[in-house]
Amino acid sequence: MAHYRASESKREQFRRYLEKAGVLDSLTNVLVALYEEPDKPNNALDFLKHHLGVAGAEPGDTEALRLELTELQQKWDLLMEENKDLRNRVREN
């Protein structure tokens, strides 16, 4: 009987920990959103991940971001070179 009470105590401590951290509220809100969703998603787990913010970027989004990053790095390099040239001109005058 003492073992049963010890595990209940641990469960209660864990429940309080989850409640204090806001985990229970977050899970409840996401599950309610899933319940109230008129068109239930094919993959409920993906729905939960997406609404909890753990879903990664979509592959298409990732590729678009990589391309944008490459373009911006090239522009930055050109601007740095231009800045260097302009500073040299100012020093000469």
Beta-sheet strand percentage?
under 5%
- What is the quaternary state of this protein? single chain
Distance between the termini: 91 Å
Which geometry do the CA atoms define?
elongated
Query: Segments where pLDDT lies below 50 for 5+ residues?
Result: none
Order of SSEs: HHHH
Specify the biggest β-sheet: none
How many DSSP helices?
Answer: 4
Helical residues, percent: over 70%
Structural class: mainly alpha
| Rg value | 27 Å
DSSP, total strands: 0
Give a topology summary.
Elements: H1 2-21, H2 23-36, H3 44-52, H4 59-92
Structure description:
With 93 residues, the protein is mostly helical. Helix content is 83%, strand content 0%. It is built from four helices and no strands. Helix 2 crosses helix 3. The protein is elongated, with a radius of gyration of 27 Å. The mean pLDDT is 88.
Q: What is this structure, in a nutshell?
A:
This protein has 93 residues and is an all-alpha fold.
